[in-house]
Amino acid sequence: MKTKTLYLTGALLVLFGLIIGGVGLAMVDFNLSRLSNDAIRLKKTFQTSEAFNTISIEGLNQSIKILPSSDDQIHLSWYESSSAVYALKNEEGNLSLRQQVKPFLGFRIEIPTPAYDITLALPSGFSGLIDCKISNGSISAERVGAGSLRASSMNGSVVLNALKTSGPIQVYSSNGSIQAIQTETQSVMTLETRNGSILLEKAAVGKELNCRSSNGRIEGSIAGTAQDFTIESHSANGSNSLEGITGHGEKKLVANSSNGAIDLRFSQ
């Protein structure tokens, strides 16, 4: 009986190994030479002077960098390999770049790949929505303007440096920090992170600033005075520099932290 059990266990392990090997071969179209060349990537580029309502980017194991363009065109660049392929679509005023996950036997299998940057360069005067979503990577936007921004990162940070928008800024990060450095919106800025901190440096809003952190600190500076804001703030298991300050300003500040301190101050 024990011998039969051992034989059965061995057969199952061999079968499992064959399945895993088959999955790997299928991902490279059963071309053995591609198994050793997957780290070799081909750079892809796209540029246009067309105006877009929305530019959306979605990827895996990459980082997204948003920078100012050197001319009056939009420039988008990314890297592809046998296991990292992207679909670029330009339709009805919307531009999208999304990484495609190759299905195998009806399942969507995500294979870790070497990290390469996806770069978006925007001309001055861009007034559309930037919508970025990344898994296992970071997002950064530096010295650019836009109509609005929506950014979501899992297992990575989000850094906004001198970003200016007329519309809302919405940022979410899981297992990563959020930084808003001299970032300004005429509307609402919402920053939310789980298992990460939030850092502000002269963050400026026209209407409302919402900061929420779970298992992380909220700290830094906000443009203006405390009298500019109506303040709601609570910190569980941490100190709170805004405790007892309510204000009666036209703008709204909400800062809530769980298992982390709140240390916010005003620039004036």
The share of residues in helices is: under 10%
- β-sheet strand percentage: over 45%
Which class do the helix and strand fractions yield? mainly beta
Poorly predicted spans: 27-37, 104-114
N-C termini distance: 81 Å
Number of strands: 25
Query: How many helices in DSSP terms?
Result: 1
**What order do the SSEs take from the amino end to the carboxyl end, as H and E?**
HEEEEEEEEEEEEEEEEEEEEEEEEE
Q: For the report, how would you describe the main beta sheet? A: 13 strands, mixed
The rough form would be described as flat
Features:
268 residues; mainly beta; 13-stranded mixed sheet; 25 strands
Question: Your description of this structure?
Answer:
The protein has 268 residues and is mainly β. Helices cover 10% and strands 51% of the residues. It is built from 1 helix and 25 strands. A hairpin with a 2-residue loop joins β5 (85-91) and β6. The longest helix has 26 residues, at 2-27. It starts with a helix and ends with a strand. Residues 27-37 and 104-114 have low confidence and may be disordered.
Task: Write a brief caption for the model.
The protein has 268 residues and is mostly beta strands. The chain is built from one helix and 25 strands.
Itemize the secondary structure elements and their pairings:
Blueprint: H1 2-27, E1 42-48, E2 54-60, E3 63-68, E4 74-80, E5 85-91, E6 94-100, E7 103-104, E8 107-108, E9 117-122, E10 129-135, E11 139-142, E12 145-146, E13 148-154, E14 158-161, E15 164-165, E16 169-174, E17 178-181, E18 184-185, E19 188-194, E20 198-205, E21 208-214, E22 218-222, E23 229-236, E24 251-258, E25 262-266
Parallel strand pairs: 2-6, 2-10, 3-9, 3-11, 10-13, 11-14, 12-15, 13-16, 14-17, 15-18, 16-19, 17-20, 18-20, 19-21, 20-22, 21-24, 22-25, 23-24
Antiparallel strand pairs: 1-4, 4-9, 5-6, 7-8
